[in-house]
From TrEMBL:
<dbReference type="Pfam" id="PF02080">
    <property type="entry name" value="TrkA_C"/>
</dbReference>
<feature type="domain" description="RCK C-terminal">
    <location>
        <begin position="372"/>
        <end position="453"/>
    </location>
</feature>
<feature type="domain" description="RCK C-terminal">
    <location>
        <begin position="144"/>
        <end position="228"/>
    </location>
</feature>
<keyword id="KW-0630">Potassium</keyword>
<dbReference type="InterPro" id="IPR050721">
    <property type="entry name" value="Trk_Ktr_HKT_K-transport"/>
</dbReference>
<keyword id="KW-0520">NAD</keyword>
<dbReference type="InterPro" id="IPR003148">
    <property type="entry name" value="RCK_N"/>
</dbReference>
<dbReference type="InterPro" id="IPR006037">
    <property type="entry name" value="RCK_C"/>
</dbReference>
<dbReference type="GO" id="GO:0015079">
    <property type="term" value="F:potassium ion transmembrane transporter activity"/>
</dbReference>
<dbReference type="InterPro" id="IPR006036">
    <property type="entry name" value="K_uptake_TrkA"/>
</dbReference>
<protein>
    <recommendedName>
        <fullName>Trk system potassium uptake protein TrkA</fullName>
    </recommendedName>
</protein>
<keyword id="KW-0633">Potassium transport</keyword>
<feature type="domain" description="RCK N-terminal">
    <location>
        <begin position="233"/>
        <end position="352"/>
    </location>
</feature>
<keyword id="KW-0813">Transport</keyword>
<feature type="domain" description="RCK N-terminal">
    <location>
        <begin position="1"/>
        <end position="124"/>
    </location>
</feature>
<keyword id="KW-0406">Ion transport</keyword>
<dbReference type="GO" id="GO:0005886">
    <property type="term" value="C:plasma membrane"/>
</dbReference>
């Protein structure tokens, strides 16, 4: 597949790394020559320096025979025009644009993206994706990571194991014998910084970070088995009143259960905009790093603090200070993945990586086969893929035990009709089923082959 990626920032770089590693023909376009040179030197990609919306620049990037353009520059307008040029002049079949401004995303203006208007096939909104990720973290406070699958009927839970975990030093195959009715599979384990797909004979140890794929009805029971408890969040303090903080607060206000939220925002104009856009949420104008303003927000009685400013260091330090002041749980927005190892030592319970959420959204629309959802884990080390099994797939009609999955691939669950089923060796995979697969990055191409059909679905 020939792909043009506009924008060599964090998201563009990550998508280019992922796609070029899977032997796609990738060209990266950016106005910054240093970023393009860095990408060309480090990745197996071609680089073009110039404005992504200029027709001559896209022509140099090979738009005449490109299969897809992904517009992920820092400018919404450049992304939109790049897609228009790719469609009108070069007839590029598939166009994905990252748009940040909320005005462009308002549902009442959705006609804007019709093929006869502004032909964008998929619009990705990082702020909405991140706000949704933050809400999922708040809904599962005992986890460091969580994502919904199978129409909300299954959850991927990231759980940090402590010394009090009841199933330490127990081979994974024995979990099925100890808890036969538990619909949960440990699909990934991070130990000493390395993520891997575990074997049935592998044991779990204290300080392991595990990824468990769990039926939604069994989430609380699974957490208890792994030594955690889910507590209801009633008092939440949000540090940062921008699009992400505002989106989270609006979603909390829309919930039926009573949640008391407060926002702390340093910029007065942004704070006033947030206050105007909310009904029940209290908005405080001040520095989220200031202990006085934190105490005014009653941080010592808060169930959770969510630090979502546009500065990683502010988010980390504000989360640490809130936790020291007595807040029960802290979540920080962290753009730089190299800061992730600091979360544990600093006692930050969970973090959100905007790049990972945006990359996951884009990958969902790139993967071959009938892919319905993708979640990128770690620094794109692995993926959780949800896909429909089509009649032409090599999986269709086989028992789970008879499928030659690569070593780094595990089945999390199958959904037959509207019922989520725990995978066992004698379970038959049928056309129409929805399958959830954990796959290490090196095995993605083989998983795509297993999900592949006679004609690629894009």
């Amino acid at each position: 597949m020939k792909v043009i990626i506009c924008g060599a920032g964090q998201v563009g770089w990550q998508i280019a790394r992922q796609l070029s590693g899977e032997k796609n023909d990738v060209t990266l376009v950016d106005v910054n020559a240093d970023l393009v040179r860095r990408a060309s030197d480090t990745l197996d990609v071609q680089g073009v320096v110039g404005f992504a919306s200029y027709p001559d620049v896209l022509e140099r990037a090979g738009a005449r025979d490109a299969d897809m353009i992904i517009a992920a520059t820092h400018s919404d307008e450049v992304n939109m025009v790049a897609c228009q040029v790719a469609h009108s002049i070069f007839s590029v079949p598939r166009k994905i644009a990252r748009l940040r401004a909320q005005s462009y995303l308002d549902a009442i203006y959705s006609d804007l993206y019709r093929r006869d208007h502004l032909p964008i096939d998929v619009v990705i909104s990082p702020e909405r994706e991140v706000a949704e990720a933050a809400l999922q973290r708040l809904a599962a406070p005992a986890t460091f990571d969580t994502e919904s699958f199978m129409l909300g009927r299954a959850q991927l839970l990231g759980i940090q194991l402590g010394e009090d975990c009841p199933v330490l030093n127990t081979p994974l195959r024995q979990l099925n014998e100890l808890f036969p009715s538990l619909r949960a599979i440990v699909v990934g384990v991070r130990r000493e910084g390395r993520l891997f797909a575990p074997e049935p004979g592998d044991q779990l140890f204290a300080s392991d970070q595990i990824y468990a794929f769990v039926h939604s009805e069994d989430v609380n029971r699974a957490l208890e088995i792994f030594g955690k408890q889910n507590k209801k969040q009633e008092r939440i303090v949000i540090i940062g009143g921008g699009n992400v903080g505002l989106g989270v607060a609006r979603a909390l206000e829309a919930r039926t259960d009573r949640v008391r939220a407060k926002i702390i925002e340093k910029n007065r104009a942004v704070a006033e905009r947030a206050a105007d856009g909310l009904e029940r949420t209290i908005v405080l104008n001040g520095d989220g790093m200031d202990m006085d303003i934190l105490m005014e927000a009653a941080i010592d009685r808060a169930d959770a603090v969510l630090a979502v400013t546009d500065d990683d260091k502010t988010n980390i330090l504000a989360a640490v200070r809130a936790k020291q002041a007595g807040c029960k749980m802290s979540i920080a927005l962290v753009n730089d993945p190299t800061l992730a190892p600091l979360m544990g030592p600093l006692d930050i319970d969970a973090y959100i990586n905007p790049r990972a959420t945006t990359v996951s959204s884009i990958l969902r629309h790139i993967r071959h086969g009938k892919v319905r959802a993708i979640y990128s884990l770690g620094d794109s080390e692995a993926e959780m893929i949800e896909a429909q099994v089509l009649s032409t797939s090599p999986l269709a009609g086989k028992l789970v035990r008879d499928v030659e999955f690569p070593e780094g691939v595990l089945v999390g669950a199958l959904m037959k009709g509207d019922k989520v089923v725990k995978p066992t060796g004698d379970l038959r995979i049928e056309a129409g089923d929805v399958i959830a697969l954990f796959t290490m990055a090196a095995d993605v191409r083989e998983v795509e082959r297993l999900l592949q059909v006679s004609i690629d679905f894009f």
